[in-house]
Amino acid sequence: MRVHVKANECQGHGTCVMVCPEVFSADDQGFAVIENAEVPAALEDTVRRAESQCPERAIEIDD
Ligand code: SF4
């Protein structure tokens, strides 16, 4: 599973960083940065939760 953030839609709420800091971090303006686009199996459920909670629907998952 791979994940990426649509930079033009991310508004920097930081929800994804709080839900899964192993995969998402924030740049110095609070916008999401992907630390690991190839999601380890153990983190897949957590990344799906982050995707579902992003208020801007800015997170995309490729299964
Ligand atoms: S939750 Fe969505 S809008 Fe907020 S920082 Fe993460 S990707 Fe961006």
Mean pLDDT figure: 96
Bound molecules: iron/sulfur cluster
Question: Count of helices?
Answer: 2
The tally of structural domains comes to 1
Terminus-to-terminus distance: 5 Å
Strands in their spatial order, largest beta sheet:
1-4
What shape does the CA trace take? globular
Estimated share of beta-strand residues: 15-25%
Derived from helix and strand composition plus strand pairing, the structural class reads alpha+beta
> Could you state the order of secondary-structure elements as H and E?
EHEEHE
- State the CATH class: Alpha Beta
The largest sheet, given as strand count, sense and whether it forms a barrel, is: 2 strands, antiparallel
Q: Give the proportion of residues in helices.
A: 10-25%
Low-confidence stretches: none
CATH architecture: 2-Layer Sandwich
Backbone CA Rg: 10 Å
CATH topology: Alpha-Beta Plaits
Number-wise, the strands total 4
Would you write up a description of this structure?
Helix content is 24%, strand content 22%. It has 63 residues and is an alpha+beta fold. The protein has a two-stranded antiparallel sheet. It has a two-stranded antiparallel sheet with strand order 2-3. It is globular, with a radius of gyration of 10 Å. The relative contact order is 0.35. Iron/sulfur cluster binds next to helix 1.
